[in-house]
Fold:
Amino acid sequence: MPHTLTISQLTDKLAQGELSSREATQSCLDRIDAVDGQLNAFLSHDPEDALTQADAADAARAAGKSRPLLGVPIAMKDVIAVNGHPLNCASKILGDFNSPYDATVTEKLREAGAVVFGRVNMDEFAMGSSTENSAFGPARNPWDSDCIPGGSSGGSAVAVAADECLASLGSDTGGSIRQPAALCGCVGLKPTYGRVSRYGLVAFASSLDQVGPLTKDVRDAATMLGVIAGEDKRDSTNVPEPVPDYIAALTGDVKGLKIGLPKEYQVDGIDPEVKSATEAAVAELEKHGAEVKEISLPHTQYAIATYYIIATAEASANLARFEGVRYGARVDGASPEKMNRATRGAGFGEEVKRRIILGTYVLSSGYYDAYYLRAQKVRTLIRQDFLNAFKEVDLIASPTTPTPAFKIGEKVDDPLQMYLSDIFTISCNLAGLCGISIPCGFSVSGLPLGLQLLGKPFGEPDLLRAAHAYEQATDWHTKRPEIS
Amino acid sequence: MTYEAVIGLETHVQLRTRTKMWCGCANEYGAEANTNVCPVCIGLPGVLPVPNAEALRKTALTGMLLNCDVPSYAKWDRKNYFYPDNPKNYQLTQLDFPSTIEGFVEFEFGEGIERVRINRAHLEEDVGKSTHFSDYSGVDFNRAGVPLLEIVTEPDLTGPDMAYDYLNALKAILENGGVSDCDMEKGQVRCDVNISVRPVGQTDLGEKIEIKNMNSFSGVRRAAAYEIERQIGVLREGGTLVQETRRWDDVVGITENMRTKEDAHDYRYFPDPDLMPHTPSEGWIAEVRASVKELPLARKQRLIADFKLPSSDAVVFVGDAALGDYFEVATKGAKNPKAVANWVINNLQAKLSEIGSTVADVKFETSAIGELVGLVEGGKISSKIAQDVFAEMFESGKSPATIVEEKGLSQVCDTSELMVFCNEAIEANSVSVEDFRNGKEAALNFLKGQVMKASRGKANPKIVGELLKEILG
Structure:
């Protein structure tokens, strides 16, 4: 059952000739056939194209080539451009649009030898926390198909947790990798802003978006990050910081590592099971030599409001290009303006429209200073909170989500409640930090829980080291859902 | 009551760069529709802009040519509006931190020199071009993303003619400075004109009326003249003016309302999160400053002052900077710069345009024209022979002295030798001799011409004249 392997397990077997990439890829394809009708993680996939890539990887290996992901099947969130494949952002508005180019991360995966396959489900344009906002139906949590898998990278998390691929790429604007990873029981890493190129990632909120991996364990996250990180001249916001050896950071040793617990995160509404699982996880790290102390992030309470002003403002402009003139599902109208209105009215879902309207409002003449400009100032304060905290500690620990996965449909009529599910993840994006969610237990009802660790800008080595050490000491990450 | 006009101009100028502002597509006019396009400049999902270093450099250079400051911090903003020719439905521009600020342009107007203050020259991107067919419209995105400079004046212009002269001066500065070709035919220069009128003596400005998107300077002049008359007419009749945007109908020669303030766009500007601010270092600014060329007006004044050239010659050299540069090198060490200028303008330029060539291809040494002038002025060759020598120089690249030497073209000054030619001419033209003796001075010139002809132009005409008079007198 090669689809159940981690990347490192598979690459070992490939290297030893125990398995071929074709077998591994076919195994994933069979798994999709078996379970995805129920889970709806994949919007589309092209088995023939995947197997062709697998054969090419096998041939390369036979010719003595060795690359970090050679022959490893990786699924792509439907917001990342893959040349010749659909790019829908789980929206109706893009119609039958196929990307004519590869995102930088896609190129990097290819250079590393990966079998890049499949378009995985998400909230439309990455706007949401449950994957219920997909125009192609919600993805379902493999641990309980009545529950949401989280979002917006819900499909990416489901595909990994249900062993439909070895790893996937997602995007994280306010928690969209970490939150579904937590709710599905896999590892989700949001790199530091500027660490990974955004070229070819369809923008939701440009100053917050980052591409990152969802994987079955921390080692795989380190491998994936090592492949996709690095300088890209096509992204001006990309930081030309050298890429360290992330695998080398996995020493298993957290002695002396200082972990902060923000007192402002002790808020009402945290599920007691989540709370105790987080406390137990921190205690485990402490047991292995980490030092734990309370810290303060005084502007925490403004994070969600700040986020929803900045993210929606940027989105209102980023999504303006979808109007049916050059591509996508055009709805005709008697004038360009009528065509725009008809196309956007028919093509966008409710949540996307809500955010475009919000963003348009906060940028409007007379409101800009009160909303957008003020939000930018608060954002600076939030970042300052973290930079101050990181003078005292190396990492910050918290639950990834305040509750385990909720039921499909439970919060769709209450957007504000839905927004609050991002409370622990959102500040990381506002401050431009890196963060990871790793499995740290299960609720009584059998749903996975996640521990979030946040690191300083470009502090991924520390982040991965602590996450890996915790993983070594526990076996939560080895648990797999039974999919009936 | 007497009214006066107050005019400000916003001039959009396409920068001359190899590639577009944010991508590697060619910045090239006239290609087949939608062939100079890529995912970036047609705004496909997922793409990001990367600033064109050459455009940033030329923007700073333009600022310097317009006597602007180049701040150490500039940023990009999104200007949001929906239009089919606008691929992202926002245009990248510079709202509150432009790349260059606060300069001025000086230009000749009437008898004197005028100075118009420049508020800013900021960088933005051009949009595509719509074409309307019988039952559909098309957009050509070749122009989308071409770097576009917006040069904004303060309201310092007082009339249509001044606006016209300012625009021509601006064009000359930008062309001469190498930042834009300013080709009006290719739409590389477009103007918005802001006009208000007020009673003479009033310091507050009247209601500002903007005329959008003019693509010729004469159109600007006519539209401004019309609009000033119209506005004064409205006020004289007791009407009021409201802030509005108007369009110029060049065929009918009138302006008409496009939109009033109430339905003005809310562009919802905000800083572009895809681009970092441009923070030029002092070193970079100094490097750009090193490539600033002398302004046309300054050069004209200098050519007149330093070389005692007439204004008309100076204008030629300013208008054709390469020719002007050639002149300045060619005249080095020459005693008579005006004579060198004559050769450069009347002969060299004529020859070059005849064969469609440029000064870069001239075969002879740059010092040659000065030498040729020296030969004429030293009496070594006649100016007629000099014409032949020049033609030979232009053909072969040989020096004038070599040509004179090789072809034996030196002027004959030896009286005994010339005497032979003179006597021959007198003998062969008895009628002219008679005429001269009867007081017809012109007859002497005829005889002189015969001598010159017989000597194949080499005879010194001055000595020949004296000899003929002597013989016949």
